[in-house]
Amino acid sequence: MNNPETPLITRERLAADLEKIGLRRGGLALVHSSLKSLGRVDGGPDAVIDALHDVLGPAGLLVFPSFQKGGEHKLLREGVVFDVRSTPTGQGLLPETFRRRPGAIRSLSPTHCLAARGPGADEFLAGHEKCEVSVGHGTPFEKIVERGGQILLLGVTHACNTMLHYVENTSGAPTVSCELFTPTVIDAAGQAHTVPTYPHMPGLRRRYERIEQELTAAGIQANRRVGLAEARLIDARAMARHIGARVRADPLYLIDVFNPAPTTPGAA
Predict the structure, then answer these.
(1) Largest CA distance in the chain
(2) Mean pLDDT of 113-136
(3) What is the distance of C-alpha 115 from the center of its chain?
């Protein structure tokens, strides 16, 4: 629970902090977030989303992860049905509030759905259901890289940076399962789609936080406080090139081979 003596963080302060860290007006931004890290926000999650839109402006495209909670293999093996109209996101209160906003739409991915709001959101999310690797070539994640988008880690670390899955999956890391699943996704019109999906391998513990100092030193990442949160703003294209080269040289660069993840049911 927030301390009532903690000063309120206003929408205006959040917008000013986002401008200072370098969020670009008219740009494309994927946000991973922790609402509580920001402090006691006047207006709650809606004020944070409003501040992001304030800075991006009317031409900007705001994107949040919108996939459901749970290990990929467990969900797929149990025959998950993902309904973009009603399936809640398991990524926190900010993404859940965002996906419910008028004008926000979600991509048709059973495991790595993204929600977007702004001009061109339909085109940006289109075709995700045709990509057998949900964080790979042809996906909205790739479009963020190709369009020079930004990744904002708002009170979270690179452990939450889903774009690093894209870097691995497209640079030769042994991260994708050879088992194909055929889950169902229900679109906004209520139509069912079968979406062939190769999930990530279970049991791989990542070392994503090792790139922190490397990106900062290379000028690819900016760090400062937004509200009370430690925030990181990353150039997606530059990160993909820089870390992609690392992974191509060493496919296990982002994988901790000495400390595999627990083999619990549903681990992914």
Answers:
(1) 53
(2) 97
(3) 10
- Centre a 10 Å sphere on the Cβ of residue 60 and count the other Cβ atoms it contains: 20
The C-alpha atoms of residue 234 and residue 237 are separated, in whole angstroms, by 9
Distance, CA of 196 to CA of 184 (rounded, Å): 9
pLDDT at 261: 62
Cα→Cα distances 99→89, 119, 146, 192, 223, Å: 8, 16, 24, 20, 27
Spatial separation of the C-alpha atoms in residues 38 and 14, rounded to whole Å: 9
Phi, psi angles (nearest 5°) of residue 81: -115, 120
Per residue in 21-34, pLDDT (tens digit) is 999 999 999 999 99
Using DSSP's 3-state secondary structure scheme, residue 15 falls into helix
Number of H helices, E strands in the chain: 9, 10
Query: Starting at the edge strand that comes first in sequence, how are the strands of the sheet with 192-194 ordered?
Result: 81-83, 184-186, 192-194
CA–CA gap between residue 255 and residue 240 (Å, rounded): 16
- Tens digit of pLDDT for each residue in 32-67? 999 999 999 999 999 999 999 999 999 999 999 999
Q: Which two tokens stand for residue 214?
A: 């490397």
Beta-carbon-side half-sphere exposure of residue 232 (alpha carbons within 13 Å): 25
Give yes or no for a contact between 27 and 116, defined as CB atoms under 8 angstroms apart: no
Q: Which two tokens stand for residue 120?
A: 């061109």
Give the number of other CB atoms < 10 A from CB of residue 77: 15
With bands split at pLDDT 50, 70 and 90, how would you rate the model's confidence at 70? confident
End-to-end alpha-carbon separation of the chain, Å? 31
Q: What is the three-class DSSP state of 145?
A: helix
